[in-house]
Amino acid sequence: MSARPVAEYAFYALLVAGALVFPFLATNEYQVYVMALAFIWAIAAMGLNLIVGYTGQLNLAHAGFMAIGAYTTGLLTVDYGVPFWLALLLSGPVAAFLGFFAGILSLRLKTHFFSIFTLCVGYIVYLVIEKWDVVTHGTVGVIGIPAPSPIGPISFDSTRALYFMVLAFLVATIFFKRRLVRSLVGRSFMAIRNSDELAEALGINLMRTKVVAFMLSTFIAGLAGGLYAGFVRFLGPDLAREYHTFDMIAFVLVGGIGTLMGPVLGAISITWLTQSLQFLENYRMIVFGPMLILLVMFMPHGIIGTFGRWQARRREKQMRASRGAGRVGAEARAHG
Length: 336
Fold this sequence. Notes:
The protein is an all-alpha fold. Helices cover 77% and strands 1% of the residues. A two-stranded antiparallel sheet has the order 1-2.
């Protein structure tokens, strides 16, 4: 095994170890709650990054699909008595099923036309949840969502236990996405992101591949929504609002668009930055907004993207220096 994968695995192991000890280092339960919530948003942002960062399609209905997954779990458990874990398992497939129909319609459009269409789709999802109160409870929302049922000796009746449950799903999502983006399917997504014409020349079916990316993205959003329902245990129509999609776009941009860990870093850093500015109340956006603008201006590839490019330049310099030293050595041996 080369040095790079070893360093990569060591990096992931360090992150997981830090996440595992965090609840024991936190000074109060609220910090554990905030971090778990950041993990849920990180999962949702990873789904958005799949369609935006890897496939190049700016989907503005992502929060709507997260709400679909959340309401699937919430309504099935509260109104129909379905066990939590079964309802959670259905949250992703239901969101992906509806995402299929939204995808085959919207993906016929390109660039900003696609974004505007999906913005409308997200708003329609919000209106359906708010107005169809016979099914969705309307503006009252879904109240009293039960906590996840125990799995053998493991119960989820505390914030710390729920934190570890969410962390397990986050690690599983990272593992799945890492395998996906390095597979032939993931490389097809990136070929489409780079150029539709190039992808077609390589024999990639554009529509089918985009729909697959869209469905996988909505599946992850629905799963994150199901986790949100089980963790917060209350749902309202506002979960489908477009500003939640814009929050997730900010997570992706700050962390690094088109990178594996970028959405995770973005979700965690922005969540805690927002928490640290709570004392400013409604004025916190005066501080937070310019910071975000400066970050996007001077680090357009995000934190991880910028670091990755710096590493690539460093490796290139080392390779050039190595080749130069080898050439000098060969010339010296030829003349000596």
